[in-house]
Design brief:
Layout (H helix, E strand, L loop, with lengths): L7 E7 L3 E8 L4 E8 L3 E3 L2 E4 L1 H17 L7 E8 L5 E3 L9 E2 L7 H10 L3 H5 L8 H11 L1 H6 L2 E3 L2 H10 L3 E2 L1 H4 L5 E2 L4 E2 L1 H6 L9 E2 L5 E4 L2 H7 L6 E3 L2 E2 H8 L8 E5 L3 E7 L9 E5 L6 E7 L3 H12 L3 H9 L9 E3 L17 E3 L7 H23 L8 E5 L6 H11 L2 E5 L5 H6 L1 H6 L6 H9 L4 E4 L3 H14 L2 H5 L7
Parallel strand pairs: 1-6, 6-15, 6-16, 10-13, 17-23, 23-24
Antiparallel strand pairs: 1-2, 2-3, 4-5, 5-8, 7-9, 11-12, 14-15, 17-18, 18-20, 19-20, 21-22, 24-25
Helix pairs in contact: 1-6, 2-4, 11-12, 11-13, 13-14
Length: 497
């Protein structure tokens, strides 16, 4: 019997709420899409997920492929994208000791304050913001509040993709993009900041190895083949933290390429060859090439706020939410919304920031509140664009990707508020997984370079273009000026510290 040629790269994208699995053939066509919902455990400032659920979701997706007739020999490689800045504790047998502490968890406020007081240079060393979301602060929290767990921890991992790689290969790794966000790595040297760890008696031997995103970490062994169904010898790549894979999926290959991401959280990002001194509100992450960085202005509020509004004002019906927005005019009858329901990262680095409606009157309707939520989110993203480019040119074109792009209203309001042309690629919510496949495509010889991958795979995908509505421009310009005054005016009214 002739063995079938290997036609696919298997790609897994582990988001905050869903794991997506798909197969991508040599032409870039996506097939066999499966989404598995993930559960997040919330308790006050605690935000956690169970790593064992990631593994179960992974096995469910792969089993679906093989049941549906995909031959293991058709899959040449496995690669990953996943959320970053988590804290995952493994014992000496590689078993999780606790739930993973997610990036949006803010329990380590006091520990972050202690570290900043003792090492005020932490931001200049890491090149990135430092606050209670940092895994370094959460590691110190673990040592102080759960010392038995910390002492039993033999390995720390920092993202779900790295846990899946560990389960498949036994290797303990992190990619440079994710490592850049941890406040543990010297950005210019790709080394852990040992001096900070020693000062707080944190053992650097527990840290994983920093491996390049395009590296082959291992192959499927006989034992793992029997467990997962994948063929022995299937290549396993390191992959990317979601910021890196999302950027590649958006076609950010060369310097000054830029895009907007609307996921559970969101950001505005561009590629640059310049390493800058730390700037508040900016992340500078290592990218797929040594001489490229990702310059990212990040928001804690995006799809999570959109979902909240749909639940509150449209009974969970997304189509009804869209209809309500279509039935209102720009400006929401003077109603403004500050979308800081999950604290904020940029331009306000305040994990305790809260949201607000401003301008409620007896004429305010639910429809106005729906539109005001989207306008507030878009005003917040305009702040990120302005932060990165204080004097942006008028005819900018931004690619916009992520699950939020399924909302045509959100896309149009973003174009109107930011006065930019927006292009949304087909299946934009799957582009992080497609971006993660770039490295295997090149290593397998399917494409010659990242530039060729962008030209032959990414640029040929269909897209929808949203043009700014000039009639709404003057309304939004005035509203935006009022919006920028809300946080400074109310941040002292709520003290949750």
């Amino acid at each position: 019997m002739v063995e079938l040629p290997r036609h696919y790269v298997a790609t897994f994208d582990v988001g905050s709420s869903v794991m997506k699995g798909m197969l991508i053939d040599q032409t870039g066509a996506i097939s066999n899409l499966y989404d598995i919902e993930l559960h997040t455990y919330l308790n006050d400032q605690f935000v956690e997920q169970d790593p064992k659920e990631w593994w179960k979701a992974f096995l469910t997706i792969t089993n679906n492929w093989f049941v549906c007739g995909i031959k293991p020999s058709q899959i040449a490689a496995i690669t990953f994208s996943g959320h970053m800045q988590d804290l995952i504790t493994l014992d000496e047998n590689g078993v999780p000791l606790t739930n993973a502490i997610l990036y949006s968890d803010n329990r380590a406020y006091n520990q972050a304050k202690t570290i900043q007081e003792k090492f005020p240079e932490i931001t200049s060393l890491s090149g990135n913001p430092f606050d209670s979301t940092s895994p370094l602060a959460k590691w110190l929290w673990l040592k102080e509040h759960e010392p038995d767990v910390e002492s039993q921890t033999k390995t720390l991992l920092f993202g779900p993709k790295d846990y899946l790689i560990f389960r498949l290969t036994g290797q303990k790794v992190v990619d440079p993009t994710n490592a850049s966000t941890l406040s543990l790595m010297m950005l210019t040297e790709n080394n852990w900041i040992v001096s900070v760890l020693k000062a707080f008696d944190l053992d650097s031997i527990k840290l994983p190895n920093i491996r390049q995103s395009d590296e082959i970490i291992g192959e499927i062994s006989h034992t793992v083949s029997e467990l997962t169904g994948f063929a022995e010898g299937t290549l396993i790549f390191c992959g990317f933290g979601d910021a890196g894979s999302t950027s590649l999926g958006a076609g950010v290959i060369q310097e000054h390429d830029q895009y907007i991401y609307l996921g559970t959280t969101g950001w505005v990002a561009s590629a640059t060859s310049l390493y800058n001194d730390y700037k508040p509100g900016h992340f500078q992450l290592k990218y797929f090439q040594e001489d490229l960085f990702l310059d990212i202005a990040s928001s804690s509020n995006s799809g999570n706020v959109h979902s909240w509004a749909v639940q509150q004002f449209s009974q969970g019906d997304y189509r009804l939410f869209e209809k309500q927005i279509e039935q209102t005019e720009p400006g929401s009858n003077g109603l403004l919304f500050l979308p800081y329901l999950n604290g904020q990262r940029s331009p306000v680095p305040d994990p305790h920031a809260t949201g607000a409606f401003i301008g409620l009157t007896k004429k305010t309707t639910t429809k106005h509140m729906c539109r005001a939520v989207l306008e507030g989110l878009c005003f917040s993203f305009k702040q990120l664009i302005d932060l990165k480019s204080p004097h942006p040119p008028h005819s900018q074109i931004f690619y916009m990707i992520g699950g939020g792009t399924k909302s045509a209203s959100w896309c149009q309001v973003m174009a109107d508020v930011c006065h930019i042309m927006i292009k949304v690629p087909e299946n934009a919510q799957y582009l992080p997984a497609l971006g993660a496949a770039a490295s295997p495509f090149i290593k397998l010889g399917w494409e010659s370079s990242y530039e060729a991958f962008a030209e032959n795979i990414l640029s040929k995908r269909k897209s929808i273009t949203y043009y700014p509505n000039l009639a709404a421009q003057s309304i939004y310009e005035k509203s935006y000026e009022h919006f920028k005054k809300i946080y400074p005016a109310i941040n002292h009214l709520v003290d949750v510290h």
